[in-house]
Design a protein that fits this description.
The chain is α+β, with helices and mostly antiparallel strands. Helix content is 26%, strand content 28%. It is globular.
């Protein structure tokens, strides 16, 4: 894969050439810090065994050579030689020609709309997912890529949603309990417990950190209406950015405030933007919940009118049917949403019949870890 390795800047950098004609550069300090030898990293878990202060500040590359599918580098003043697989260098390159545009998403994130997703909702049966790692891998991979998925054939019993979270991680308990009931109540303390329709929203934006996954499981559903729907917040944010770049900038740079005080002894508050970007401009989180929005006081007076116009347009796009995917949960079905990305909603339903759902929260790191472990196991088996 590698065609040349040229040391530059008095050993501070190295320029690598590849068979496809591309070139990438690396810094000596970065390479030394990321060395793969057993003196630098634990062979058992890959954790570093040294700190940045253990690396000489004047580290340089004294020699470099291509040996098969690897690059061998010698560092001074340590007099240390380390080998880097070419595939590893290619996978970890940071020498990009152009800066990414704010709002970018990784290759593993697939944005979607009604047109692309309504007839291809990702789903799996619980019995198969619980015994077949390939079925589970496909289902977890769908959650990672699309931000939601449906699970069929769960036991029709209270607490069955825990079986979904047990497939990949742990329930995140909150003031609502280990799980919570979602059905009509008299004088409820939360609109989710009525038969009213709910606008597409993310849950609990008043928490910091926000729960990253939500599971909703159906035990009984004999009402008219009450369909569930999901909206890809990343796709909506991209549409807003294309239409109104300044509005996107305001919603992603000015914090909103959210709060909840619906039950005794609970006062939750958070200050985060509706559209959150990472330091490098990556789109990482959507927070949208009109019920929990507190007064916005962190936007300059000169920008408030434009901010509210952007907020209104964002809400209009979220309500646009072209972004909405709908389905009706039957008893023994559940769906999971990435609560940092996918908004969920519910249509109003009649007072006749019964609609009993249960919900809980979980953490995305557990899901991603389980998925990565399965994929790693499959890769090792193939090798």
């Amino acid at each position: 894969m590698l065609t040349h390795a040229r040391i530059g800047d008095e050993g501070r950098t190295i320029d690598l050439g590849w068979k496809d004609g591309s070139r990438t550069r690396f810094h000596a300090m970065w390479l030394r810090d990321n060395a793969l030898d057993d003196k630098t990293r634990s062979a058992g878990n890959g954790q570093r065994l040294i700190t940045i202060l253990d690396i000489p500040a004047d580290t340089r590359i004294s020699a470099a050579s291509i040996k098969g599918d690897a690059l061998e580098i010698s560092f001074v003043p340590e007099q240390k030689t380390v080998s880097f697989p070419a595939a590893w260098l290619s996978a970890n390159t940071y020498d990009r020609g152009e800066a990414r545009r704010p709002g970018w998403t990784g290759e593993g994130t697939a944005r979607w709309t009604k047109a692309t997703m309504q007839n291809s909702v990702p789903r799996a049966g619980y019995p198969a997912a619980s015994r077949d790692r390939e079925v589970l891998r496909q289902w977890l991979s769908a959650v990672k890529a699309y931000g939601f998925a449906v699970m069929d054939d769960l036991p029709i019993e209270s607490g069955a949603l825990c079986k979904v979270s047990d497939l990949f991680g742990y329930i995140r308990e909150t003031n609502y309990g280990r799980w919570f009931e979602v059905r009509a109540e008299v004088n409820p303390n939360n609109l989710a417990y009525t038969n009213l329709g709910l606008q597409a929203h993310t849950d609990n934006p008043y928490r910091d950190p926000v729960p990253t996954l939500q599971i909703l499981s159906c035990i009984e559903n004999t009402v008219e209406g009450g369909e569930s729907s999901v909206v890809d917040g990343f796709a909506v944010a991209a549409a807003l950015q294309a239409e109104n770049p300044e509005g996107f900038r305001l919603l992603s740079s000015c914090p909103a405030r959210f709060e909840y005080a619906g039950s005794s002894g609970v006062r939750l508050q958070a200050k985060r933007p509706m559209i959150e970007l990472g330091p490098d401009g990556e789109l990482i989180c959507i927070r949208f919940n009109n019920r929990s929005l507190a007064p916005t006081v962190d936007v300059p007076f000169a920008d408030m009118e434009a901010y509210y116009a952007a907020y209104r347009r964002f809400a209009e796009l979220i309500e646009d049917p072209s972004f909405e995917v709908t389905f009706k949960l039957e008893a023994g079905q559940a769906f999971i949403v990435d609560n940092t990305r996918v908004m969920h909603a519910r249509k109003a339903f009649s007072g006749t019949g019964k609609r009993w759902l249960q919900g809980c929260y979980a953490d995305k790191d557990g899901l991603l870890s389980t998925l990565a472990a399965i994929e790693h196991g499959f890769k090792e088996a193939a090798e």
